[in-house]
């Protein structure tokens, strides 16, 4: 895990830190080859330069975002934004279900839209094979 992600987690309230630490640990285990960095102020993991999953602090929770999550066809994920992203929000660490999170992380690897080249393609997303 990138040191900036550790710093991000460390400055959260104790309850939010517990959520962030559990998310980071699960992501690191499921996507060991992913590059992790703090991007636009939040921890994000990338596969081949393409953002796939990250989390951020909202006022009352921690939001976990999957860039291609709408294509996962999974209950529990809500559409976010105008592209293919989907989110889930956690108020406590007990809200995290390890099996569900592991399944979603597997789909994050297998199902990806090419966000890395979104600007080059003038806002048009293409599915990666």
Strand order of the largest sheet: 1-2-3-4-6-5
How many helices in DSSP terms?
Answer: 3
Strand content: 15-25%
Biggest beta sheet summary: 6 strands, antiparallel
Describe this entry's structure for a reader.
The chain has 129 residues and is α+β, with helices and mostly antiparallel strands. The chain has a single domain, classed as Aspartate Aminotransferase, domain 1 (Alpha-Beta Complex), CATH 3.90.1150. The protein contains three helices and six strands, in the order H-H-E-E-E-E-E-E-H. Strands 1-2-3-4-6-5 form a six-stranded antiparallel sheet, covered by helices on one side. A hairpin with a 6-residue loop joins strand 5 and strand 6. Helix 1 runs antiparallel to helix 2. The longest helix has 17 residues. The protein starts with a helix and ends in a 19-residue tail after the last helix. The mean pLDDT is 93.
């Amino acid at each position: 895990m990138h040191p900036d992600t550790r710093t991000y987690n460390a400055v959260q309230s104790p309850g939010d830190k517990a959520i962030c630490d559990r998310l980071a640990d699960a992501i690191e285990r499921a996507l060991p080859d992913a590059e992790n960095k703090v991007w636009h102020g939040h921890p994000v993991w990338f596969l081949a330069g393409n953002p796939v999953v990250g989390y951020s602090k909202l006022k009352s929770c921690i939001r976990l975002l999957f860039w291609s999550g709408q294509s996962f066809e999974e209950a529990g994920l809500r559409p976010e934004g105008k592209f293919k992203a989907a989110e889930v929000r956690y108020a406590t660490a007990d809200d995290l279900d390890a099996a569900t999170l592991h399944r979603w992380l597997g789909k994050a690897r297998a199902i990806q839209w090419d966000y890395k080249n979104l600007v080059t393609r003038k806002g048009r997303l293409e599915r990666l094979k």
